[in-house]
Q: What sequence folds into this?
């Protein structure tokens, strides 16, 4: 097994999966640069599977093309459209590799044997039938697989949701028994805040699946949430690293491996691992919800049937018996229209008097396994945000995460102030054994 210090030492005949994101294959020069890195692995004797994203902002462009034609594009046709971006990248990279004197073959998700459910635009991988990939590897070829896509059990092309090439890569790593899954991106690894918002953010060397799951779920788009779920379930070790420089990145591994790493390097686990954020939240408020058993179940079932993930939910208790309640919840902004559609019938059935929407919401979260055993963290988060004049509109917690919904335009300030308050920049990380002073 490769050490988690990120050195390039792969053993010959190991299989490696390398995934390059959109920025890393944005133009001809970058595709050639990625090809050079891919070929170097092959020349070191490794069996190489590559997963590529669409070039640059191609997926955004394709979505914009669809929206120009239709306000609610048909999901099946949307997948036909979106899956083209990654195919272009793979064909071009295969040409570059051929020119470097190596054998390469590009495959669509379907040709690579990625079988999904039928949920267009957010399909889940059910199975990977990797025989064609393994055959090509046995023939000494480099295999390039178009990320973010598969074929459904109904034989239609599907896509895996934004950022889905990460999940393609992890699923292939599991299927071909790769030693690790290398995710090459435009930052040197996973940082303790988005470096675009907090320039003092530090790279994390090693992080557990559990913490990374909470980070991805709360907005750290550097790894798609499902890729981390898949990696945890199948024990795939992820190495997230820079596609522009050859430095060690971040290893996402089991808690046991994180603990062993900390022990070996005599570092303690920090109290707070990262501050994450999302600026793509929307809030729906239902007024006049009947205060009777089953109402919340009907509302959330309608959303679940439309495959919409509800994040935070608040329901107030009416002051008088028999009165009606208000219920607020957040959904990803891209699902706002879909959620309104999905609620139509149940709103009528329950006699809900008003459906209010606020599309410009954001969320800031702190994540850290250290907080499990340390009271006072929530108090510190709320106090710090309050002192910054940031009004918290909803709160949700898990044993290792505290999330606050705040107005979208206050998200950067909220990230920066929490990052500083928990000592996450420079060498001043707060260790669990350190007291919180006034917050303890
Ligand atoms: P790719 O196209 O390579 O898949 P993404 O844009 O999906 O790249 O992910 C990389 C981006 O994720 C970074 O440019 C960064 O702005 C953002 N990001 C958000 N949170 C984090 C974080 N905690 N650590 C690193 N990057 C982050
Ligand atoms: N191209 C897709 C997206 O932009 C998938 C990916 O890059 O992972 O979301
Ligand atoms: Mg990505």
A:
């Amino acid at each position: 097994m490769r050490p988690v210090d990120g050195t390039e030492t792969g053993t010959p005949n190991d299989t490696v999966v390398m995934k390059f994101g959109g920025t890393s294959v944005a133009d001809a020069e970058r595709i050639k640069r990625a090809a050079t890195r891919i070929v170097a692995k092959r020349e070191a004797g490794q069996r190489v599977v590559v997963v590529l994203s669409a070039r640059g902002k191609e997926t955004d462009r394709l979505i914009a093309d669809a929206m120009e034609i239709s306000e609610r594009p048909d999901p099946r046709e949307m997948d036909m459209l979106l899956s083209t971006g990654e195919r272009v990248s793979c064909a071009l990279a295969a040409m570059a590799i051929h020119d470097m004197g190596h054998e390469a073959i590009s495959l669509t998700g379907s040709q690579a044997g990625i079988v999904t459910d039928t949920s267009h635009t957010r399909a889940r991988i059910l199975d990977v039938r990797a025989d064609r990939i393994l055959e090509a590897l046995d023939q000494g070829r480099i295999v390039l697989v178009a990320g973010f896509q598969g074929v459904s059990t109904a034989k239609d092309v599907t896509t895996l949701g934004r950022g889905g090439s990460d999940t393609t890569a992890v699923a292939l790593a599991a299927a071909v028994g790769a030693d690790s899954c290398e995710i090459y991106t435009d930052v040197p690894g996973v940082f303790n805040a988005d470096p675009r918002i907090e320039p003092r953010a530090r790279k994390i060397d090693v992080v557990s699946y559990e913490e990374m799951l909470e980070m991805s779920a709360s907005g750290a788009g550097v790894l798609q949430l499902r890729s981390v779920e898949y990696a945890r379930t199948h024990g795939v070790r992820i190495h997230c690293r820079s596609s522009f420089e050859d430095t060690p990145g971040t290893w996402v591994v089991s808690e046991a491996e994180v603990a062993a790493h900390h022990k070996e390097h005599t570092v303690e686990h920090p109290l707070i691992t990262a501050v994450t954020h999302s600026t793509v939240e929307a809030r729906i408020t239902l007024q006049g919800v009947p205060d009777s058993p089953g109402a919340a179940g009907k509302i959330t079932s309608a959303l679940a049937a439309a495959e919409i993930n509800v994040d935070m939910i608040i329901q107030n208790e009416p002051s008088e018996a028999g009165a009606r309640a208000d219920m607020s919840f957040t959904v990803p902004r891209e699902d706002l229209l879909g959620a309104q559609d999905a609620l139509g019938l149940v709103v009528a059935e329950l006699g809900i008097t008003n459906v209010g929407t606020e599309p410009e919401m954001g969320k800031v979260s702190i994540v850290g396994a250290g907080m499990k055993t340390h009271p006072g963290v929530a108090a510190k988060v709320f106090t710090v945000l309050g002192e910054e004049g940031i009004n918290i509109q909803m709160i949700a917690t898990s044993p290792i995460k505290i999330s606050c919904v705040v107005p979208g335009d206050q998200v950067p300030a909220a990230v920066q102030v929490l990052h500083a308050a928990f000592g996450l920049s420079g060498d001043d990380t707060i260790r669990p054994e350190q007291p919180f002073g006034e917050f303890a």
Q: What stands out?
A: Residues 166 and 227 are 6 Å apart (CA to CA).
